[in-house]
Amino acid sequence: FDWFLNLQEVKKLDSHLRVAQQIKSLSRLMSVNQVVRDLTAAQLEEYAHSRLEESSPTKLGETIAPKTVKEELNLLRNILNRALQYEVISKVPVAKFPSVKIDNVRKRIFGEDEYQRLLKECPIWLRRIVVMARETGMRQAEIIKLEWSDVDFETGFVRLKASMTKTDEPRSVRLLPEVIAMLREIPKAVHTQRVFLSTRNKPIPYWTTYVQTTWKSVLEKAGIKDACFHDLRHDFVTRAIRSGNPPHVVMKQVG
Fold it and tell me: Cα separations (Å) of 45 from 15, 56, 211?
């Protein structure tokens, strides 16, 4: 695990901190006493089963989400494959990893009145991020990592580099006139190329606890229940398809 975390390509990841946290959980499965070649599918099954029954450290009364467990197992597979690639191990000991079923499909969209209430309660820095999410379908991380060099005002597109997207593929995102107008109003900082900055005029490295707390506070003030930030992305997709855009075009936009 230490070897993996110290790889240059892993240290450069924006998600390095999260990877380190996931490894803490995996360490209980593969401690220093566990020989890699002796790892079995049964151990992985037991790990998944045990983790799913553990209490969530952030959500009172809930257990660890299946998505979390699936991500941890995927990380372990990634570590083993990388170790094989670097010839640290001679083979991956487990041919088949446990399947963890995730049922997290949400169909939440925002009514126009609801959306306007949301914008009204947002501080200006968060309002810009919200507008970007709902009117482009971009992911949370893609938005906060956006730099001015990625914005093409002339053609009305955002050009996302492969390193910025979840699919590791570059993508062009079309901008509506209202989004272009909003972006043009944002003052460009001298100390950073990032487009969206915090209340202190600093880059937002990731979706921090402060950002999440502000988001939840805004929802409460606006009287909006059962909503998460990712719903803005789903909202964009739903409205775009209802407006008559071909699904494959919309899917290409949102990646």
Answer: 26, 19, 35
Cβ–Cβ < 8 Å for 235, 114 = no
pLDDT digits (tens, 9 = 90+) for 17-71: 889 999 999 998 887 888 999 999 999 999 999 998 898 887 777 888 888 999 9
Q: What is the pTM of this model?
A: 0.64
pLDDT, tens digit, 9 for 90 and up, residues 77-136: 999 999 999 999 999 999 899 888 876 556 678 889 999 999 999 999 999 999 999 999
- Rounded to whole angstroms, how far apart are CA atoms 146 and 25? 31
Three-state SS for the chain is CHHHHCCHHHHCCCCHHHHHHHHHHHCCCCCCCCCHHHCCHHHHHHHHHHHHHCECCCCCCCECCHHHHHHHHHHHHHHHHHHHHCCCCCCCCCCCCCCCCCCCCCCCCCCHHHHHHHHHHCCHHHHHHHHHHHHHCCCHHHHHCCEHHHEECCCCEEEECHHHCCCCCCEEEECCHHHHHHHHHCCCCCCCCECCECCCCCECCCCCHHHHHHHHHHHHHCCCCCCCCCHHHHHHHHHHHHCCCCHHHHHHHHC
CA dihedral 22, 24, 25, 29 (to 10 degrees): 120
Distance CA 182, CA 136 (A): 13
Task: Tell me how far apart the alpha carbons of residues 32 and 189 are, in angstroms, rounded to a whole number.
Answer: 47
Judged on CB neighbours under 10 Å (0-12, 13-18, 19+), 76 is: buried
| Per-residue tokens: 185 | 């109003």
